[in-house]
Amino acid sequence: MTRTWPPREAGTEQYSAGEDAGRKSSEEGRGLGGGSENSRRESGRSPGPRLRRAVAAGAVAVLVLGGCGFLHAAHQLRSDGSARNRALTDTEATSRVAGDVGDALARIFSYTPDGTAAAERSARTALDGKAARQYATLFDRVRQDLTAQRVTLSTRAVRTGVVELDGDRARLLVFLDQTSRRGEDAATTAAAQLTVTARLEDDRWRIVDIETR
Amino acid sequence: MERPARRRVPRRLRTPYAPALALALVAGGFAAWAGQDWYGAAHDDRAAYAAQRDRALAAGEQAVQNLNTLDHRDLDRGLDLWEASTTGELHEQLTSGRDGFADQVKEARTVSTARVLSGAVTELDDRAGRARVLVALRVTVRAADGTRTDKDSRMLGELTRTDGRWKLSALGQAPVGGAPAG
Questions:
Q1: Measured between alpha carbons, how far apart are the two ends of chain A, in Å?
Q2: Ranges for the SnoaL-like domain (chain B) (predicted)?
Q3: Which of A50, A198, A213, B167 could form a disulfide with A193 if both were Cys (CB 3.0 to 4.6 A apart)?
Q4: Domain B48-173: which CATH class?
């Protein structure tokens, strides 16, 4: 900047005001592009170039910062817990996970004295992780009794609500009706409430955790 | 000698401003794009629907908890809360049955405290302002003699949005052994 001052001062002297006065004022409003030529000439008399550059730089900075601000706000809106949770907002995925989990629970908690094998087979495909371990432990303990006492259990998911659905993870609240019968006794129906955590693996929802409520 | 020099100088000096102009355009473009991105996110229907869902659930859980909480020593406050949490038919039922119910609880001298274990919205009609919720609840009842009993229940609630707030318009236990539904 500084080194251009003397020549510019000279130039200003020589440039006639008549030709430039009109152009100058119209150029002033044009910012970066228009101001450049003009500022060279005017700098001797006014703080033009410095000011204009500062204004231009400021404007660019404001635009960039503003843009960043918008992006940040947009990101916050999108990553906000409410928006990330796709329960009900994605109806297809919601009914799919609810259906898969409801069916799985019905299958793994339904058996006859002769047929715990089917329930356990279902459990192998429908359960994973902690839920699979819990289920195996439970069945190892009761398998003998089930056969001895001729217990029949049939389970139905009466209501399924998706609490949270985020990509490949989901949390559901399931109301179950469990009808059991021992030998020839009359059947009794009990209500159960479960919170279930499921994970999408190979395009199938598998239950990874079951918590009794 | 002076003239050509003068003419040349501005033209040559103009070039350093081309990048500045480009920079300004890029900055302006970036800001415009970011602003429109933000506008899109802020006016996303799905996000608005999700926000309603969460509001309905929060209100539903709170209302179900309120309606299962009552202290015989502070009946008025409890029953006021019942009325404030409800709307429509349920509200009318509670209002008309208030005195009789208050007498019963005063006599029984029970303190009921409810805790929501889990809840989920199963249906939401954002436009009509209606929603259905499932709530798993644990109610602890302390009888006059000090004995405490815990009872878990599963509730089905229907919410209606009135004046921008979600309130319970129906509440009941999920039937056991009934017909399957959603």
A1: 75
A2: 69-170
A3: A213
A4: alpha beta
Q: Does A91 reach chain B within 8 Å, measured CB to CB?
A: no
Whether B4 has its CB under 8 Å from any CB of chain A: the answer is no
ipTM surpassing 0.90:
no
Q: Tell me if A70 sits within 8 A of B34, measured CB to CB.
A: yes
Cβ atoms B173, B155 nearer than 8 A: yes
Please state the φ and ψ torsions of residue B173, each to the nearest 5 degrees.
Answer: -75, 145
**Domain ranges within chain B, ordered by starting residue:** 2-40, 48-173
Domain endpoint, select from A59, A79, A99:
A79
> Do A29 and A114 reside in the same domain of the chain?
no
pLDDT digits (tens, 9 = 90+) for B13-69: 555 677 888 888 899 999 999 999 989 888 888 888 999 999 999 999 999 999 999
Q: B47 to chain A nearest CA, in Å? A: 5
Q: Is A73 on the interface with B (CB under 8 A)?
A: yes
B33, B53, B181 ranked by CB distance to A158: nearest: B181
pLDDT for the residue B133: 97
pTM over 0.80: no
Q: Does B133 or B176 have the greater pLDDT score? A: B133
